[in-house]
């Protein structure tokens, strides 16, 4: 596998040429990544040349609709699913809310249960837990309070009676960051007669998923954390999509990608999501040449490029933090098993520490990051929160060294 060409990668992101950001090292990528140039270019073109109602019989409208269709077609192909199995919505939190309402209607009055974890971001936890108000049993799959690990073995007794219809869990947590064995968990759930809903928000920025390999029935992530515009992206496989009640206008109920989008989409941002596919294709071509490959194969190759670079940069940071005795490093110590989203609990409030790092040119965050349940399960004082240091594949070795030096001075 070729090494990631960072000069090429960073040339694809206007932020790195912005005078306003010079001298700043960005370590809050888990809150939202920089936007790739193809996305910005498409958004600019849409607002300038296509800002009309799409799908009408005149050129600007036809071109706008074609760009929206292109985004859905290309991203779905890259993840190995049918075009109509990919939906756009205003955010992942909103998309999950709509799905939870559909599940509420589907399971109302039945002796059914769902499984949630206490490793999740609240967007893939709170909405599901509220189904208890309808008499649906909510079973909690709990993390290890020392490590944050989500043990697949602990799921087995929750599934034994056959009443569980849905298992909701993260690909990786936005504070624990351990990469969960999604394919194994999905196989366990489906063998017990349950669908799966995987929160991929914290994983997808490190490489878009191969959905058939994972076996997830629903997979959700945020485009704005994946180099794109502020949209939520949902993969909803046909079997679960047909089983759940329509949440859109009644006349859209037969179209799978409209079925869980009750409001009209943001046309320009949907169209701009094709720029995410442009970026992935550009990375593939630059590193592998114009060799023929399917969209899924190109995406998987780029995924591996991203992860390989991130793992190499992450291990020195983990080693540095693990060697300190004035903080608690949350999650695995080995880079291969986690995302480069690194949360540490300190003996003081985290937000002032993040502010102190800003004075050294480090952009990072402090707080609970809507991960209240996992932090409480780990015994972290919510009032203090955690310092979170998150990066992606466009981060450099020099920036990680800069971060470590800044931490030395601030801590």
Major pleated sheet: 7 strands, mixed
Radius of gyration: 21 Å
Shape: globular
The unreliable regions are none
CATH fold naming of the largest domain: Aspartate Aminotransferase, domain 2
Structural write-up:
This protein is an alpha/beta fold. The protein has two domains: 144 residues, Aspartate Aminotransferase, domain 1 (Alpha-Beta Complex); 234 residues, Type I PLP-dependent aspartate aminotransferase-like (Major domain) (Aspartate Aminotransferase, domain 2). The chain has 16 helices and 13 strands. The protein has a seven-stranded mixed β-sheet with strand order 2-8-7-6-5-3-4, with helices on both faces. A four-stranded antiparallel β-sheet has the order 9-10-13-12. Helix 8 links the parallel strand 6 and strand 7. Helix 12 crosses helix 13. It is globular. The mean pLDDT is 97.
